[in-house]
Design a protein that fits this description.
By secondary structure, the chain is α/β, with parallel strands linked by helices. 33% of the residues lie in helices and 24% in strands.
Length: 253
């Protein structure tokens, strides 16, 4: 299920309909965002105004908020540089750079993954990515967001002399399969109940553009498929969507 809105009033109505209002009331809430680095052209990050709206909403609803992202120890700097420093301080938001966190090893379809233990401390978890398909990379939104939710130190290759590449190279050896496996185990270990998409996006064929609607959903696969077909269908199709569709079908047979 997902709902759309064009303004803040309707957004808050959707929060109530989908259960986010009651879910966050007087509770600890984890926001997984995309802010491994500050914004630069054609490299969109989670919309800053949307993050501010969520932090304020959770605070006014009596909840306590934490922001999580893997930024190799630089998440606080990124938050300040992106204009979130004041609201983070005012609302007492905890900053969790997952690259510095202890983790538990889990197995997903035989593949080991490493999820920060602290995620289980938050009964409510919300994913707030930026939608993009950049040159040479997979379409990225809700599902692929979790590649940045695991400590990079656990995903290095054994060859210390390997050329510089993605920050978690083990995930890129079979990326579609690893993205699907990681997402499913994240939902088993510390499930995310809500997904919120909006703001600046990037399509390699059309450049930067704005998602004028804000999408609020409780099904990452449904939202990713919809946004792909609506805004990115001229781009390479990400195989992890078919892997997850097939596994969901088999689970329901």
């Amino acid at each position: 299920m997902f709902l759309t809105s064009y303004n803040e009033q309707k957004l808050f109505e959707n929060f109530k309909i989908i259960g986010l209002e009651n879910g966050t009331k007087n509770r600890d809430v984890l926001l997984k965002i995309n802010l491994s680095g500050v914004y630069r052209k054609n490299h969109p990050r989670t919309d800053i105004e949307l993050i501010k709206t969520l932090i304020n909403y959770i605070d006014q609803n009596g909840g306590k908020c934490a922001i999580a992202e893997g930024a190799n120890g630089h998440l606080t700097e990124n938050i300040i540089a992106s204009g979130l420093g004041d609201i983070v301080k005012h609302c007492g938001v905890k900053i969790i750079d997952v690259d510095l966190e202890n983790c538990d090893e889990v197995l997903s379809y035989g593949e080991p993954h490493y999820i920060p233990r602290c995620f289980q401390e938050y009964p409510v978890r919300i994913a707030v990515p930026s939608a993009s398909k950049r040159e040479g990379l997979f379409y990225s939104n809700n599902i692929k967001l979790f590649v940045g939710a695991v400590p990079r130190k656990m995903y290095q290759l054994d060859d210390v002399h390997a050329p510089k590449g993605p920050p978690r190279p083990k995930l890129h050896q079979n990326l579609s399969l690893s993205v699907a496996n990681l997402f499913l185990e994240m939902q088993n270990y510390s499930p995310f109940q809500f997904y919120i998409n909006g703001g600046l996006a990037y399509n390699e064929n059309r450049g930067e553009f704005i998602l004028n609607e804000i999408f609020v959903g409780n099904d990452a696969l449904e939202l990713d498929c919809y946004l792909y077909q609506t805004f990115f269908s001229d781009c390479e199709y990400p195989g992890y969507l078919d892997i997850l569709k097939a596994r969901r079908f088999n689970d329901n047979v």
